[in-house]
Amino acid sequence: MSIPEPIQTPDGPAYEGRLLDRADEEVVDQGAAFDIRTLMSRRGLLGLAGLGLGAVVLAACAPAASGGSASPTAASTGDASEGASGTTAEIPDETAGPYPGDGSNGPDVLEDSGIVRQDIRSSIDGGATAEGVPLTFELRIVDLAAGGVPFGGVAVYAWHCTAQGEYSMYSSGLEDVTYLRGVQVADDDGRVSFTSIFPGCYSGRWPHIHFEVYPDVSSITDSTSAIATSQLALPEQACSAVYAESAYDGSARNLSQITLASDNVFGDDAGALQVATVTGNVSDGYRAVLVVGVDTTTEPAAGSAPSGGQGGPGGQRSR
């Protein structure tokens, strides 16, 4: 059987309307995340005959996509076509961890004026700024209950650790700092975007970004109003490049001791629906894109903080 050929688009090679996670490799070598999304797509099911059943099974068992290293000008636009056709799967519910800052475990940044912001590198009062490799991450929220249309108007609260693996508002010395936390309201295409830094890797966890989705911005002051709580996983290739930088001391070692499959959050399926498409480089910064399917007909099931992990460069426990 012939190997399907990708179509060249202004944003890079694409197959069945989705940009390839690994632009320099064949369609059959895109990794588990891409193949599982293909399996869940009606258009993908029609195209699987060209891939061959054996190739699909092998690809689905392969490690999750590691992301590309193209320049930001060639950044992926993600899987918006899946949302438009109603074929995106629901994002797995995950723990918010012990450092959410949403009022469910101590401090509540969502009560602060100024929390709705795109650039989260500095504290809301401008008093402190987090240092690290630049990262812009974009979430595209899809309303599965309405047939897979963009979920415009929802509010997304996102937060993550510093380059040293610490969390603002909780880690020692950062109790009065509010950086790396912010809220954005999805536009008509269901998109939110944050300007931040690449998070570090602390012991016991794969590099990740937390987020909660709320019905609207007026709901963010009540954490129980969240309609989805999950985490974005960052691909290994980009992580390895970033963690070679001195600002991320300890992260490379911690990354070498864990995999997506052994992570206590992403381990169920190696983060098949949660590994972002990442492009860029250390010098110019990175861009991460993830499509997030939200189904309001199902009951949110995010649990408490997972156990395990010895803390990372910041000396903190598992988060």
In CATH, the architecture of the largest domain is Sandwich
* Biggest sheet statistics: 5 strands, mixed
CATH first level of the largest domain: Mainly Beta
User: What is the helix content?
Assistant: 10-25%
User: CA-to-CA gap between the ends?
Assistant: 46 Å
Uncertain runs with pLDDT below 50, 5 residues or more? 36-86, 303-319
CATH-defined topology of the largest domain: Protocatechuate 3,4-Dioxygenase, subunit A
CATH superfamily caption of the largest domain: Aromatic compound dioxygenase
Count the strands?
Answer: 12
Shape: globular
How many structural domains are formed by the residues?
2
Average predicted confidence as pLDDT: 80
Could you walk me through the main structural features you see in this protein, from its secondary elements to its overall organization?
- The chain has six helices and twelve strands.
- Strands 4, 5, 8, 11 and 12 form a five-stranded mixed β-sheet that branches. The protein has a four-stranded antiparallel β-sheet with strand order 7-6-9-10, with no helix packed on it. Strands 1-2-3 form a three-stranded antiparallel β-sheet.
- A hairpin with a 5-residue loop joins strand 4 and strand 5.
- It has helices spanning 32-39, 42-51, 53-60, 80-84, 236-242, 251-256; strands spanning 7-9, 12-15, 18-19, 134-143, 149-150, 155-159, 181-185, 191-197, 208-214, 228-233, 277-281, 285-294.
- The protein has 319 residues and is of the alpha+beta class.
- The chain folds into two domains: 7-60, no CATH class; 72-294, Protocatechuate 3,4-Dioxygenase, subunit A (Sandwich).
